[in-house]
Amino acid sequence: MLTLKNIGAGYGKLAVLNNISMTIRKGEFVALLGSNGAGKTTTLRTIAGLVRPAQGSIEFMDRKIDKLTVQQITGSGISFITDDGCLFSGMSVRENLMMGAYLVRDKPRKRLLFEKALTLFPRLSERLRQPAGTLSGGERKMLAIARGLMSDPKMMLIDEPSLGLAPLVVLSVFETLKGLTGEGVTILLVEQNVHLTLQIVDRGYVLEDGMIAVEGSARELLASEDIQRAYLGIT
Ligand SMILES: Nc1ncnc2c1ncn2[C@@H]1O[C@H](COP(=O)(O)OP(=O)(O)OP(=O)(O)O)[C@@H](O)[C@H]1O
Ligand SMILES: [Mg+2]
Hints:
alpha/beta; four-stranded antiparallel β-sheet; binds adenosine-5'-triphosphate; 235 residues; six-stranded mixed β-sheet; 10 helices; binds magnesium ion; Rossmann fold
């Protein structure tokens, strides 16, 4: 579904990612882990077209996407949910959701996506007229994910959805995401919350200084104390 081959990328002269290769299959739930500054967000930005790779190639559904615009990449079925949610705070919850579907032309489809988003996040349906800026932190995270779903994505890149959320809410968000992968949506999830993440995803990649240090099934990563100590800051 998504293949990164030998990706090098950075900001101006600053090289951040070095020789990153990953393969993610349809419906897989994959975590991208690593310490602060390792390059996790940069990896998602590079896939989403916000950072241009200096080396390597990215293929999504058998099509090269590394030279496409951000809008073309969104249109091809990739939805990027940033860690700050990037909501329009003066606009209502409903308007924010509708903005997420700006590329969906089919009206009944739009309606269906809207209803599905509200079924997944019922708290939002009670707050449709409320300005996004007045939502609680957790509600804002839910809105960001729900808005990402409004573009009818085949793949979601999600940056630290657990940031600032209570553990119970994190669990419920993760379970919602797991449910989406069950429906065939592919998810690449960036997380600091390593233990919880490895209990829910299928596989993980660990980034260190812009390179992939380890990859493996969630079970392998959870079982290896060496990996946890060396790369994930767990003792
Ligand atoms: N816009 C930018 N301009 C210059 N350097 C940047 C920019 N964004 C990120 N960097 C640098 O790139 C490196 C990787 O940053 P990135 O945001 O990808 O890390 P991360 O793994 O997401 O970290 P965190 O866990 O703290 O979110 C860091 O050293 C950072 O300072
Ligand atoms: Mg980050």
